[in-house]
């Protein structure tokens, strides 16, 4: 048993870190540790490419009774870093509460006590979620664009969860440590970017609708530095939201209808339609605006359409976790096979079977669509959440 395990504290906070050497506020952690005795930390390095790991290891060596460093290399994403840290924090019966906090400390460390007090006061509550609500008298400093995107996302999350939750994505959450909480983190999350939503969905399923979730409006919260969220991550979130809905939604006619509408094959067809739209848009631009030959326009349009299809299929349809170096060549191979299959079916159907070319094309398109979906699902993008 090391000094970390011997220190008496009620709360353990997991802090996932990835390339945080410029943002990690070491003095803030040291000051908090000096001022309090009831909170310990597990700092998790998620395969950082900078010196984050050595920084948190140095901090843990300086405060071995209060801080532990955990290395989960190679990089697997915030969801897995949080999960591994929470499993460590909830080992045995040492801590009463365990939670996770964003490394940028957008939510100040001194709010941990406020979260813990909610669990102290309300035995029925299992989870406390921080909520960034810009009420009078509060200091919630958030960019307008992120606020409005956040509201759109929260509305979608509420529909998926069938729960009137205000803010699923605030990076401050605290859990009552018990077997139910351990179950929530027992298996890896299927979603890489919006695992918070999947975590709440797991809780609702585990407790069969008995919700012990408490949203705590924060007194202070501020954007710190540049966001690590890229525009493409919003596409990813759409795909992962659909997968979470299909995995965790409850039964009912309306839910079954929505499940069908969000099924992977429907998304695949919709992505194909979007790619086709880009194909024709580029063709029209090249021919009508640039006054170039239709063949060139069609080739460029097909290239743009294929790129759009790839990006949307990767993030929205299949929510793949595989490297682009693996998926892109496979996607192009499937596309090439589709072109060959299309030509072969047309040739056989029109020249040997005597079918009208329109009927032959309909048959070919259906076969190419079905084969492309199966190959992309099981080979190109690998397994996703469902």
Could you walk me through the main structural features you see in this protein, from its secondary elements to its overall organization?
The protein is an alpha/beta fold and 386 residues long. It contains 14 helices and nine strands. It is elongated. The model has no long low-confidence stretch (mean pLDDT 86). It folds into three domains: 3-253, Alpha-Beta Complex (Spore Coat Polysaccharide Biosynthesis Protein SpsA, Chain A); 263-317, no CATH class; 324-386. Strands 3-2-1-4-7-5-8 form a seven-stranded mixed beta sheet, sandwiched between helices. The chain has a two-stranded parallel sheet with strand order 6-9. Helices cover 55% and strands 12% of the residues. It has helices spanning 3-6, 26-35, 52-62, 78-89, 112-121, 144-161, 179-184, 195-206, 231-248, 253-261, 264-289, 294-317, 324-352, 357-380, and strands spanning 11-17, 39-45, 67-71, 97-101, 127-131, 139-141, 172-176, 213-217, 220-222.
Please outline the helices and strands.
Blueprint: H1 3-6, E1 11-17, H2 26-35, E2 39-45, H3 52-62, E3 67-71, H4 78-89, E4 97-101, H5 112-121, E5 127-131, E6 139-141, H6 144-161, E7 172-176, H7 179-184, H8 195-206, E8 213-217, E9 220-222, H9 231-248, H10 253-261, H11 264-289, H12 294-317, H13 324-352, H14 357-380
Parallel strand pairs: 1-2, 1-4, 2-3, 5-8, 6-9
Antiparallel strand pairs: 4-7, 5-7
Helix pairs in contact: 6-9, 9-12, 11-12, 13-14
Average pLDDT score? 86
Largest sheet: 7 strands, mixed
Number of domains: 3
CATH topology of the largest domain: Spore Coat Polysaccharide Biosynthesis Protein SpsA, Chain A
Element-by-element helix/strand order = HEHEHEHEHEEHEHHEEHHHHHH
CATH superfamily of the largest domain: Spore Coat Polysaccharide Biosynthesis Protein SpsA, Chain A
Strand order of the largest sheet: 3-2-1-4-7-5-8
Principal-axes shape call: elongated
Compute the CA-based radius of gyration: 25 Å
Can you count the helices? Answer: 14
Query: Which structural class should the secondary elements be placed in?
Result: alpha/beta
CATH level-1 class of the largest domain: Alpha Beta
Percent of residues in helices: 55-70%
Distance N terminus to C terminus?
A: 40 Å
Which regions contain 5 or more consecutive residues with pLDDT less than 50? none
Number of distinct beta strands: 9
Q: State which percent range the strand residues make up.
A: 5-15%
């Amino acid at each position: 048993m090391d000094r970390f395990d011997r220190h008496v504290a009620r709360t353990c906070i997991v802090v996932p870190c990835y390339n945080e050497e410029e943002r990690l506020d070491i003095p803030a952690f040291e000051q908090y540790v000096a001022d309090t005795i009831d909170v310990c930390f597990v700092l998790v390095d998620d395969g950082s490419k900078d010196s984050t790991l050595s920084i948190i290891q140095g901090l843990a060596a300086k405060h071995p009774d209060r801080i532990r460093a955990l290395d989960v290399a190679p990089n697997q994403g915030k969801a897995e870093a949080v999960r591994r840290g929470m499993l460590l924090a909830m080992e045995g019966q040492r801590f009463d509460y365990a939670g996770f906090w964003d490394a940028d400390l957008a939510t100040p460390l001194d709010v941990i006590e406020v979260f813990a007090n909610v669990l102290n006061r309300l035995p029925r509550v299992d989870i406390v979620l921080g909520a960034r609500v810009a009420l009078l008298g509060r200091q919630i400093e958030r960019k307008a664009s992120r606020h409005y995107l956040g509201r759109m996302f929260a509305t979608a999350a509420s529909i998926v969860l069938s729960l009137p939750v205000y803010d699923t994505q605030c990076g401050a959450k605290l859990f009552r440590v018990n077997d139910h909480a351990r179950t929530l983190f027992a298996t890896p999350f299927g979603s890489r970017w919006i695992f918070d939503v999947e975590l709440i969905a797991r809780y609702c399923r585990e407790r069969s609708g008995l919700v012990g979730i408490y949203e705590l409006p924060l007194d202070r919260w501020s954007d710190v530095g540049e966001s690590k969220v890229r525009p493409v991550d919003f596409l990813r979130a759409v795909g992962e939201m659909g997968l979470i809905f299909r995995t965790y939604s409850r039964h009912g006619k309306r839910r079954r209808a929505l499940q069908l509408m969000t099924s992977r094959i429907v998304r695949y067809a919709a992505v194909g339609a979007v790619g086709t739209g880009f194909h024709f848009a580029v063709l029209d631009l090249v021919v009508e605006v640039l006054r170039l030959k239709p063949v060139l326009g069609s080739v460029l349009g097909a290239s743009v359409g294929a790129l759009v299809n790839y990006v949307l299929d990767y993030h929205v349809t299949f929510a793949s976790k595989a490297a682009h170096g693996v998926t892109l060549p496979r996607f192009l191979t499937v596309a090439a096979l589709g072109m060959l299959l299309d030509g072969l079916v047309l040739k056989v159907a029109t020249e040997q079977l005597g079918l009208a070319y329109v009927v032959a094309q309909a048959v070919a398109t259906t076969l190419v669509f079905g084969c492309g979906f199966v190959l992309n699902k099981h080979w190109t993008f690998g397994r996703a959440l469902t």
